[in-house]
Specification:
By secondary structure, the chain is α+β, with helices and mostly antiparallel strands. The protein has 12 helices and 7 strands. It has 2 domains: 220 residues, Alpha-Beta Plaits (2-Layer Sandwich); 63 residues, no CATH class. Helix 2 packs antiparallel against helix 3.
């Protein structure tokens, strides 16, 4: 907590600092593993392996990792480095996952699993990508929160509770057998700063925790973007093709904004033609289902089903 007698920065001063960090610490890239059709990570041990594989790929590729998340059939990472380092990071991580799948099912064959790498063009996009990654599980699963999902790094930032948690054991103090269990490969060399707790490489070992905080004005801005920031989900989702249906309250707020921006009226005053125009935007930009469209726009379910037939 800052001293109350310290000189408080103005918004412009702090924003200028954030911009300077963006210019000096980049270039930045958003790495997206393509969605696999099947579930890849099925239990805590496999998710833990995916996190350890991220840490190993960071060490072997030389990228700097800012934010990450592992979902059951894909992953997202925000890094800085050269394009070829980004590709190497993903190749190492993917090959580790292939190894896990082979150990689990001796008959499995390598499934083509590529990624997309997007350059981060400005500070606004950087913040939106952070929010998008952090909100991934929250938007996809009703029982998750942005800072409660265990297989992502969103809870590291502006969270002083982490300073009081166990630091773990230095990786290089582990036995050869323990290192092999973590790396599952011939190469077991990892950086001196890597710490291990309960078989997991501690995320603060490889995540640029202070770095991410440098790109936000303050903790309030970061948390508000995680809690309610449909803009990030829509903008980044449209770019990647990974559209996630927003929670009803966020979708209602978004539709309210669209209604006033496009037609100058609240939702309840929209004509039927205007509602159908927004319904298409909800479906194709936000992946809203027919139930959500019907409830928010107060359209009959039959009318919505006629526009967007549900596959039988």
């Amino acid at each position: 907590m800052s001293n109350k007698f310290e000189k408080q920065q103005t918004y412009l001063e702090r924003e200028s600092e954030c911009q300077l960090h963006f210019m000096e610490d980049g270039p930045f890239y958003f790495i997206c593993a393509d969605h696999r059709d099947e579930i890849i990570f099925t239990n805590d041990a496999e998710f833990k392996y995916a996190i350890n594989s991220t840490a190993i790929a960071v060490a072997q590729s030389g990228v700097k990792m800012y934010v990450d998340i592992i979902m059951s059939n894909h992953g997202h990472w925000l890094v800085s480095g050269k394009p070829e380092q980004c590709q190497l990071f993903y190749d190492v991580w993917r090959d580790k996952v292939y190894l896990m799948e082979r150990d689990r099912d001796k008959q499995c064959s390598k499934v083509k699993w590529d990624c997309k790498i997007y350059p981060i063009k400005d500070l606004k996009m950087f913040r939106n990508v952070v929010a998008y990654i952090a909100r991934n599980a929250y938007v996809a699963m009703k029982n998750e929160t942005p800072i409660g999902y265990p297989w992502g790094s969103a809870d590291l930032f502006f969270n002083r509770h982490y300073d009081n948690l166990p630091k773990g054991t230095p990786y290089n103090d582990l036995t050869y057998r323990e290192k092999r269990q973590i790396c599952r490969g011939r190469s077991i060399d990892l950086p001196d700063n890597y710490m291990v707790y309960n078989g997991l490489i501690v995320p603060t070992s490889y995540i640029e925790r202070p770095g991410v905080e440098n790109f936000f004005l303050h903790a309030n801005q970061y948390f508000s973007m995680l809690a309610r920031h449909a803009e990030a989900d829509i903008e980044i989702g449209m770019m990647t093709g990974e559209k996630m249906m927003l929670p009803d309250d966020e979708m209602f707020s978004t539709v309210s904004a669209w209604s006033r921006q496009s037609f100058g009226v609240p939702i309840k005053s929209l004509s039927e033609v205007q509602k159908f125009d927004i319904a298409k935007k909800m479906k194709y930009a936000c992946n809203s289902d027919n139930r959500q469209i019907s409830q928010i726009l107060r359209l009959s379910r039959k009318a919505v089903d006629r526009i967007f037939p549900i596959p039988v």
